[in-house]
Amino acid sequence: MKWFAPYIVDAAPAPIARTLADPWFWTGLVLVLAFFLATRLVERRPAGEQALAAMDRASAPLWNGIDGFLRIVIAGFFVAIFSVGGVYLTPDLATPSEWVSWMQLLIAVGVIWRRTMPLSAAGIIGLWLLALRDYDLFHLLDYLALGVAVAAYLVLAASDRPDWRAKRFAVLRWGVAIALMWSSLEKFAYPEWFHPLVEEKPFLTFGIARDAFIPMAGVAEFTLGFGLLWTPLVRRLSALALLVIFITAVYPFGRIDLIGHALIMAIIVVIFADPGRDLHVLPRLRGALAGVPAGLGAAMVLFVAGYWGLHAGFYGADARTMAELQAERATHSFSAEHPHGPPAMNARPQAGTEAAATGEDLAGAYAASMAGMHEAMMTGIAHPDPDVAFVLGMIPHHQGAIDMALIQLEAGGDAEILDLARHILAEQQREVDQMEDWLRMRGVELPES
Fold first, then answer.
1. Where are the residues of the annotated region Disordered (predicted)?
2. I want to staple 228 with a disulfide (CB 3.0 to 4.6 A). Which of 47, 177, 326, 383 is the partner?
3. What is the residue extent of each domain of the chain?
């Protein structure tokens, strides 16, 4: 979600009591529990083993070459983000450091040879640690479990010890499951983050009302992530359902979604193809029917306590709400001390915002922002290099849209238009940052703000 919609990480999450009072949350939970329990009942009968055997036959050709498949995807992922440039690991972890991209290419090359796979694993962890220079630790927790899992897989797969190699797929399964369960909590903590995205692409809800779809989607993501850790048939059906969800998301969100989720999708394929039947962790709990609601309930308590507790630990129990923070700075700024994406409103005042805030004529505020835009555009497009002229002209054009969005956030009252303004603010600033990075790499002086 953070790749496509505005967000503020250090805003106070909604009280968990709000989710517990939401009937749609309980509706989703009951439906998923019914699915899990029905699957476990089938799994206890001959039909369950027949279903698993059919999955074994279907996935056997892939499973026989599964390590090669994974290495190709891991290397391809790092080549892809090298080609995109300007990111550490995902689109919302942007970096102006060009050498980071070359490090990603080295990671991809290291995956080719077994002896260099541990070096690539160290590089993956290194990228995550480098991102700590620019991003808060709480923000990066979204990517910790998956990054550690992929790095651990590379180390274990390169090992000469059979007992270590035998655990390489288990670490991937746990990493993806934890990543999905953790990220799903955003739908309960910050449902407002999803509103612009749902309004921009209403077909995502399949005709379900927005306020019903978001909590039910959160339940689905959390419980299917949990299902990856359960018994073989539950695990494989959960993986199949997740794979369908991720594949169908590629069409509306495009290549960024495909690249960003490539590792998760590949690991989900591995989880589905894995013919293993053994339950090494808590076998009695996972084998009992009552273990499904007990295990799911324990997982929810653990993750909710971790998410809300760590957020309070990082930002304080008195952290301000989304509305309070949006009054001070643009979206995508996760920290007052280390803002990224659109600039803080109080750190970079824009034309017209003061007039709007004090109740002066809005038309005058908008006119002031447009006047500055046109003058800077005309100066920029006079550059003799056509590529540079385009960029120097587009930056003030985008800045004009940013200025108007900031005025709207100060003076507007319509919830739909406020969400649209936040979306414009996020997207336009992301493109401004991209164009400014392009100018810096070519030694072209940036236009004055």
1. 330-356
2. 177
3. 16-317, 326-441
In terms of average pLDDT, the best of 14-18, 255-259, 316-320 is: 14-18
The residues pairing with 87 across neighbouring beta strands, listed in sequence order, are 94
Three-class secondary structure assignment of 150-199 = HHHHHHHHCCCCHHHHCCHHHHHHHHHHHHHHHHHCHHHHCHHHHHHHHH
| Cβ–Cβ < 8 Å for 242, 261 | no
Question: pLDDT value at position 335?
Answer: 40
Residue 3: closest CA among 445, 441, 423: 423
Q: What is the mean pLDDT of residues 335-364?
A: 43
Q: Which two tokens stand for residue 290?
A: 């009552």
Contact 225, 177 (CB under 8 A): yes
Give me 89's structure tokens.
Answer: 């690991």
The answer, yes or no, to whether residue 343 has pLDDT greater than 70, is: no
Write down the H helix ranges in 185-288: 186-189, 195-200, 210-227, 232-260, 262-273, 283-287
- Give the mean model confidence (pLDDT) for residues 405-415: 80
Least confident of 117-126, 236-245, 339-348: 339-348
SS (H, E, C) 53-118: HHHHHHHHHHHHCHHHHHHHHHHHHHHHHHHHCCECCCCCCECCCHHHHHHHHHHHHHCCCHHHHH
Torsion of CA 229, 232, 234, 237, to 10 degrees: 110
Contact of 110 with 102, CB cutoff 8 Å? no
